[in-house]
Write a structure and sequence with these properties.
The protein is α/β, with parallel strands linked by helices. It has helices at about 10-25, 45-60, 80-85, 100-110, 125-135, 135-140, 165, 170-175, 190, 200-210, 215-230, 240-250, 290-305; strands at about 1-10, 30-35, 65, 115-120, 145, 185, 195, 235-240, 255-265, 275, 280-290. This is Nucleoside hydrolase.
């Protein structure tokens, strides 16, 4: 089994990523060691509450802990207009109490599993903070996949910046500036190709069958559909984080190239990620098998019936 730790900010597409990881855990294909949350789509404590609700719906026992409450150096901005008042669309669940110590969960997972896969689908705040507080354990993270950035591509928050990197640009810059091994980066130019629309949602619900979460997905996804429609992108939703998990775990075909990525932290270029000259620090994903990703989601959903 592949040991997996996910750092996320649920968030609607994070919710589907957690659904997918829970399915792989049920199938015995991964060991979901834990879930930590960042402040981004909502607060870190609300994101942890959302993640705990998803976990309980999916009947897994992975620990869920809230991480750093604010970005490294800029004020926190959340996005209720995109993901709903508390991050789960039209659904609302309580925030999690600030219990436990999330770095201890990371340390335990790293010490237990040499081949730990860390998947970051929110801002890189926890990853950067962990490097600063636990450099010796950070140096052992050799399999890190990040959803974020827009490399040579338009942004979704500013003309050049993607949301996760814009929320905490200093953390993103730190994550790519101090990586012990090249980070696999799933950026907008690939992840926004993975779309769910109402017919695909109906199919997902059918595949989930009696799984408790199935009945809640319409209220969660409807908000996301409406947001994308208001942005002129049609009544559908880009599911960035789910595709990122599939790529991280080599469950879909994809292409990548080795590059150096740096992240700007200042002014109008805040959060802008770009390819620069120098030693490669990134496995930049350039394409993915989207049809294969939909088939993989079907396979996973049926495991949760």
């Amino acid at each position: 089994m592949t040991p997996v730790l996910i750092d996320c900010d649920p968030g609607i597409d994070d919710t589907l990523a957690l659904l997918y990881l829970a399915a792989l855990d049920h199938l015995g294909e991964i060991d979901l060691c834990g879930v930590t949350t960042t402040a981004g789509n909502t607060t870190a404590t609300q994101a942890a509450g959302n993640a705990r609700w998803v976990r309980d719906q999916l009947r897994i026992d992975a620990p869920v802990l809230p991480g750093q409450p604010v970005p490294l150096a800029v004020p926190l901005v959340t996005t209720p207009e995109t993901h709903g008042p508390t991050g789960l669309g039209y659904l609302e669940v309580p925030a999690a109490p600030e219990d436990g110590t999330w770095p201890d969960l990371w340390v335990e997972a790293i010490e237990k599993h040499e081949d730990l896969h860390l998947i970051v689908t929110g801002p890189c705040t926890n990853l950067a903070s962990f490097r600063q507080s636990h450099p010796e354990h950070h140096a052992r993270l050799r399999n890190v996949t990040v959803m974020g950035g827009a490399v040579g591509y338009r942004g979704n928050t500013t003309p050049t910046a993607e949301w996760n990197f814009w929320v905490d640009p200093h953390a993103a810059a730190d994550a790519f500036g101090h990586t012990p091994a090249p980070v696999t980066l799933c950026s907008l130019e690939v992840t926004e190709q993975f779309l769910i629309d109402p017919p695909r949602l109906e199919g997902l619900i059918a595949d989930l069958g009696p799984a408790p979460i199935a009945g809640h997905l319409p209220e969660i996804l409807r908000f996301y559909f409406e947001f994308h429609q208001a942005q002129g992108e049609g009544y559908q939703a880009q599911i960035h984080d789910l595709l990122t998990c599939m790529i991280a775990l080599e469950r879909v075909g994809y292409e990548h190239r080795g590059v150096r990525v740096d992240v700007d932290t200042r002014g109008e270029r805040r959060g802008t990620s770009e390819e620069t000259a120098g030693t490669s620090n990134t496995r930049l994903v350039t394409s993915a098998d989207i049809d294969g990703a939909h088939a993989e989601l079907t396979r996973a959903a049926r495991a949760l019936r």
